[in-house]
Amino acid sequence: MKRRLWHFHGGLHLPEHKQASMTKPVVAAALPDEIILPMQQHIGSPAEPVVKVGEHVLKGQRVAKASEYVSAPVHASTSGEVIAIEERGVPHPSGLPLLSIVIKPDGKDEWTELKPVPDYAQLDPSALRNVIRDAGIVGLGGAGFPSFIKLNPGPDNAVDTLILNGAECEPYITCDAMLMQERPRDIIDGLLIMKHALRARHCIIAIEDNKKVALTLLKNSLQEHEAEFLKIVSIPTIYPSGGEKQLIRILTGKEVPSHGLPIDIGVVCHNVATAAAICKVINEGKPLVERYITVTGETLDQPRNLKVRIGTPCIDLLNACGWREDQTDEVLMGGPMMGFGIPALDMPTVKTSNCLLARPKDQPHQQPAMPCIRCGQCAAVCPAQLLPQQMYWYARARDFDKIQAYNLFDCIECGCCAYVCPSRIPLVQYYRFAKTEIWAKERDKEKADHARQRHEFRLQRLERKKKEDEERRRRKKELLKKTQPKPDSEADIKQAAIQAAMDRVKAKRATQKQQKKNIENLNEKQQQAIEAVEKRRQRLRNAGADNEENP
Ligand code: SF4
Ligand code: SF4
Description:
Layout: E1 27-28, E2 35-38, E3 48-49, E4 56-57, E5 62-65, E6 74-75, E7 80-89, E8 97-105, H1 125-134, H2 147-150, E9 161-166, H3 175-182, H4 184-198, E10 202-208, H5 212-221, E11 230-235, H6 244-252, E12 267-271, H7 272-284, E13 290-297, E14 304-309, H8 314-320, E15 328-333, E16 340-341, E17 355-360, H9 377-381, H10 388-396, H11 400-405, H12 416-420, H13 427-483, H14 490-516, H15 524-549
Parallel strand pairs: 1-14, 9-10, 9-12, 10-11, 13-17
Antiparallel strand pairs: 2-8, 3-5, 4-7, 5-6, 7-8, 13-14, 15-16, 15-17
The chain binds iron/sulfur cluster (2 copies).
C-alpha cells in the first residue's frame, strides 16, 4: 500500500544541476600537504587540544577532547606530526579565525588501534551513545549537532519514528545520493544502531523521487525482517523537503511546534551520512575522520564527489577537479540556496562540509539589490510560514525585539524568499546578521549576569565572615568571663592588686636566693673574701638603720 504523504507550505521547484557530479564514482582525495583541524566543527563548545606541537599522531587518534556536554572531540584524519596549534581561518559565515591543530602528514596514513563494538545489541543505549560521542560524530547534514545528544530522547520521551533524511533537496549537492548508491548497507546498519540507542518503534528512510538509483539500491539492501519496521519512502522533489520540520510534515502530517523539537511529537531525524558514520564507528571502530564532499560548479572540468580527509584545504579539492579560477566569481561552501562564500580557499573542509560550489562570473545574483516593492512573493514561498519582508525591515532597523516577535528563529535560512525576490534583496544575509547580533547580545548578557552573580556572592561571603568573626569574639569573651572569678567590690579589686604585687616580690626574692646557691664549692680564700664583703654590707645596713632612728 502506498504511504500517505502531506505537503508543507511554500517551497520551490528548482533546477537541479545534480547530474554533472554523479557521472563518476567517488574517489579518495589525495593526501594534502597540511591537515587543519579547527576545534569548532560542531554546534556547542569548542574542543580542547590534548596533543602538543612536535607530537607524532596516528590516523583516528583523538587530538582534542570535548570541553563540555554539548561539544565533540576531534580526531587526526591522517598520521603525521603536529606542527602548530594556532588560530586559522575556518569556513563559516562569520569568517572568524578559530584555534586549530595543524598536522604535517607523514605519508603513511597509519591508523591508530581500532576498537569495533562486537555486538552493539548487547550494549545499553547509554553505553552505545558514549561510543558514538567519543568518536566525534556530529550531524553531517549541515547542522553539526553532536549526534549522541540527539540519540538521547530523555527518560520522559518515547520515540515513535526515527527518520533518516536522504532528501538532499538543494541543487548541485549529491554527496548523500552517492553515499546511498555506494554504501546502502552501511546506511541501514547505522539506522539500526540508532534505533537501538533510541528504542524507536518505526524507522523511515526518506529519499526524493529524483534519486531513483539510490532508492532501488537501498530497497535491495533491506533484509526481509527489517521491512516490518523500516520503510524506504520516496517523496516529491521540492525544495526544501530536506528541512527537518518540512520532512517530518511530509512523512507524518505533524507540525513541530514553534520553539519546539521533533522529539516533542515523538520523532527524531538524522541524516543518512550520519548513519553511515555511526556504522563505521561501531563495526570498524573508526571515528569521524573523513566524509563525502561534492565538488561541483560550472567552472570545474571534472565535477564529482570525493572521499575527503576532514581538514583538507578547499583549494586542493578544487584543483583535483580541474578548477578554472579565472572564470570563477566565488566558491561557496554548501549549495546555492544555503551555502556561503568561502573567504580564503586555503581554509579547511570540516565535518559539516558537504559541497564546494564554484560559481561563474556574471550571474543574476551579482546584480545590485533594489528597494522592496512589497509584492509578498517572499511570504508565499516561505516553508516556515514567516513574513520575510517584515523580518527584513526589522533586521535593517536593528529592532531585534520586533524581529524575534516575528519568529526569526523559526527561519531555516532556506533562501526561498531571496530566490523569488524581484528586488534581489539578500534577505537571508539580513536574517543571519540579526541572529548573530541577538546571540552576541545574549552572550554578553550572560557574561554580565555571571559577573554580577560573582560580585554578589563575594559581598555575601564577606558579610558572612564578618558576622562569624564577631560571633567568635563574643563567645571568647563570654568564656573568659566564666573562667575568671568576678571581683565583688572596688576594695576587693585593690586588695587583689596588692596581693598580686606582694606575690611578685616574693617570687623575685626566691629567685635571688636561688641564685646565691652559685657560691657553693668555693675555695677558702674566695669564701673569706665573700664573708668580708657580707660583713661590710651588714655594717653599712646597721649604720643606715641608726641614721633612720636618729636623723
Ligand atoms: S519578495 Fe522582495 S520585494 Fe517582494 S515583498 Fe518580499 S522582500 Fe519585498
Ligand atoms: S530563508 Fe527563512 S524567511 Fe526566507 S523563506 Fe526560508 S525560512 Fe522563510
